[in-house]
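Q: Given only this backbone (443 positions), what sequence would you predict?
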C-alpha cells in the first residue's frame, strides 16, 4: 500500500517553512476526431497524491510556526451526466476523504484559490520552465497577489524547481513500490516467455507483439510501459525500431524489448532468441558474449558501487569479446583497454548498460553525485531500481565476419539494489541458451 500522505509530509519537510508547491497532472490529449489517447497521469503528481483522474492539481503548503502543513487537492466536480459517458468522478468531497488531503476544491477554483495561498508565502515550488501554460498561470497568480501589496500582502520572492526534490524521493523505492515493480516485471517476463513459446518462422513481428500485449492485459497490467520493440533479423540492429511490420524468417534472431505498466510502475525487459528455436553457432557465440557481459555487470550491483561501474564491467567483457570473435582486428585496435580508450567498441555497442526504472521507464534521478566533485558517478543505495542491458549489434561491413552480419542481441533485466546485492525482478523471462531452446522446442 502506497503511503501518499507520508510522501507529501517528507516533501513539505524539505520545503522552506510557509512555502507553497503546485503540481498539475497531465492533460488529456486528443488522438483524432473526438477520441483521446488512453489517459495517463503525471508521474510526480500521482506519486504524491494517488489520484489518477485528469484535470487535477495538488497544492502543498509547508508548515510555519503554529500553522500546520496542508495538502489541498483540486479536481473535477461530480457530474452525473458526464459520468454516464465517461465513468466515475470522485468530486472534491469524496476525493478529500479517499486520498487523505486536508481540503479539496473544484479544479475551476484553482486560479481563485492560488493567490490566497501564495499571499505572504516566501517561495513557490513548481516545475520551472517545463510548461508554457503553467508558467503563464504562475505569472498571473503572482500578479494577482502583488495587486494587494498596498494592503501589506507580499508575493513569494523566490521560485524554486520542485522536480529535483521529488526526483530524489522517487529514486529510492519503498516496500510497496518494490512489490508492485516485482509484479509488473513478472507479468512482462511471462509475456516474453509466451512470445518465445509461440514464435515460429513466417510469423509477422506484429503477431508476436500481439502475444505480448495479450499477456500484459490478461494479467492486469493497464498499459505497455512503452511501445514494444519486436525486431527480427537486421531490424534488431536498430535500437529504437518499433514498426513491428516485418515477416520473420527461418534462421534469424528476434529481439523483443517490451515491458508493461502496472498501477503506475513500469517493467522493462529485453530478450533475444532464434525464430526457429535453435541458435546457430554464430548467434550462440555472440549471445553468450552478451550474457557474460550482463553477468559481469550484475555482479557489481550492490550498495556503495558507483553507478558507472555497471557499464564498465559489461564493457570490459564486450570489448574483449569483440577481439576474440574477430569483430575487431587485434592487430589494428590493440587490447581491450585500447578498444575502450578509443571508443572502438561503439561500432557494435553504442549505448549505456542501463538506467533508473520506476514510474517512468527511464526514471527520474541523477546519475552523478553532485555533492562530491571527485565522485561523478553516484554510489548505489538500497531501494534504487535499475535495468542492466548490455548488447551487441553487427551490421554488414567489408571488415566484419559475414557469419555475424545482421545479428542484434540485447539482454535486459530489472533489479532493485538490496542491502547486500540486488533483487532480480525479471526472472520469469528465460535467458539461458538451453532454457530458451528447450522452451521453444516444447521440451
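A: Predicted residues:
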Amino acid at each position: 500500500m502506497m503511503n501518499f500522505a507520508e510522501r507529501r509530509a517528507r516533501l513539505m519537510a524539505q520545503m522552506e517553512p510557509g512555502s507553497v508547491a503546485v503540481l498539475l497532472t497531465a492533460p488529456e490529449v486528443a488522438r483524432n476526431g473526438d477520441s483521446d489517447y488512453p489517459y495517463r497521469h503525471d508521474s510526480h503528481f500521482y506519486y504524491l497524491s494517488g489520484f489518477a483522474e485528469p484535470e487535477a492539481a495538488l497544492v502543498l503548503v509547508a508548515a510555519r510556526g503554529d500553522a500546520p502543513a496542508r495538502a489541498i487537492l483540486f479536481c473535477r466536480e461530480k457530474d452525473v451526466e458526464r459520468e454516464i459517458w465517461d465513468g466515475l468522478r470522485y468530486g472534491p468531497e469524496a476525493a478529500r476523504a479517499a486520498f487523505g488531503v486536508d481540503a479539496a476544491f473544484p479544479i475551476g477554483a484553482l486560479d481563485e484559490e492560488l493567490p490566497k495561498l501564495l499571499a505572504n508565502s516566501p517561495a513557490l515550488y513548481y516545475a520551472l520552465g517545463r510548461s508554457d501554460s503553467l508558467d503563464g498561470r504562475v505569472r498571473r497568480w503572482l500578479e494577482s497577489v502583488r495587486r494587494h501589496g498596498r494592503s501589506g500582502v507580499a508575493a513569494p520572492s523566490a521560485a524554486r524547481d520542485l522536480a529535483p526534490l521529488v526526483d530524489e524521493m522517487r529514486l529510492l523505492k519503498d516496500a510497496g513500490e518494490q512489490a508492485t515493480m516485482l509484479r509488473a516485471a513478472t507479468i512482462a517476463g511471462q509475456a516474453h516467455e509466451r512470445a518465445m513459446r509461440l514464435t515460429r518462422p513466417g510469423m509477422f513481428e506484429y503477431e508476436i507483439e500481439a502475444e505480448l500485449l495479450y499477456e500484459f492485459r490478461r494479467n492486469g497490467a493497464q498499459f505497455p510501459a512503452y511501445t514494444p520493440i519486436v525486431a527480427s533479423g537486421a531490424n534488431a540492429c536498430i535500437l529504437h525500431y518499433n514498426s513491428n511490420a516485418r515477416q520473420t524468417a527461418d534462421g534469424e534472431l528476434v529481439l523483443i524489448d517490451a515491458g508493461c505498466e502496472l498501477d503506475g510502475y513500469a517493467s522493462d525487459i529485453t530478450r533475444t532468441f532464434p525464430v526457429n528455436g535453435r541458435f546457430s553457432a554464430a548467434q550462440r557465440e555472440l549471445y553468450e558474449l552478451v550474457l557474460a557481459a550482463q553477468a559481469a555487470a550484475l555482479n557489481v550491483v550492490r550498495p556503495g558501487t558507483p553507478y558507472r561501474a555497471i557499464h564498465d564491467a559489461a564493457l570490459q567483457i564486450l570489448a574483449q569479446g569483440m577481439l576474440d570473435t574477430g569483430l575487431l582486428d587485434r592487430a589494428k585496435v590493440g587490447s581491450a583497454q585500447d578498444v575502450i580508450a578509443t571508443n572502438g567498441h561503439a561500432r557494435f555497442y553504442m549505448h549505456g548498460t542501463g538506467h533508473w526504472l520506476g514510474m517512468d521507464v527511464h526514471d527520474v534521478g541523477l546519475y552523478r553525485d553532485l555533492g562530491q566533485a571527485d565522485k561523478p558517478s553516484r554510489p548505489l543505495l538500497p531501494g534504487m531500481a535499475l535495468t542492466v542491458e548490455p548488447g551487441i549489434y553487427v551490421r554488414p561491413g567489408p571488415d566484419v565476419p559475414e557469419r555475424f552480419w545482421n545479428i542484434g542481441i540485447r539482454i535486459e533485466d530489472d533489479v532493485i539494489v538490496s542491502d547486500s546485492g540486488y533483487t532480480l525482478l525479471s526472472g520469469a523471462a528465460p535467458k539461458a541458451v538451453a532454457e530458451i531452446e528447450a522452451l521453444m522446442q516444447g521440451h
